[in-house]
Specification:
Elements (H helix, E strand, L loop, with lengths): L7 H12 L22 H4 L12 H15 L5 H11 L3 H11 L5 H11 L6 H10 L5 H14 L13 H7 L1
Helix pairs in contact: 3-4, 3-5, 4-5, 4-6, 7-8
Amino acid sequence: DEIFGLSAQAKNTLLKHLEDDRRWSKNTLIIACTTTIRGIEKALLDRFTRFRVKPLTDKQSIQLLTSISKKEGIQLPKWKLALLVEKCDGIPRRLLTNLAKVRDIDSEEDVKYLLDLSVLEGYDESIVKLFKLTTGYFDWRTVKKLLLDLFKTKRPSEIKPEEGLSDNWVASRT
């Protein structure tokens, strides 16, 4: 996914390949992306030119979402567009992954909930599946399988989707 997430062995292998000029034509361009350079060895960093990419403005975010929605045939109401722009902080990847998650959801409250979940760092995809189950996306057999899979990796006390959600969401659910 991102270069900082590579194992030490993978980073060393990448470095060996980068150092071997015979492997690459003059037209080869290798792009490595990361949100942090911590944990990336200096020898590897020295082989790249660094570019700092700034978040999109709200206007650019709207243009990106509108363009993608049109090309993909996604109906994107203004309220959903506004929520995506607000919650995704101008990060294109976040805009597009969240668009995919909420594209078929018609309830503004449900969209807010999913977008709140998506900003949790390292959130568990099982939580999103359980959310979909409560909104009628799955039948009971699917629910049973999801719960069994979830409980293989987590204790019930560890499953707390409210953590990190906005106070408005928590207040509306209590």
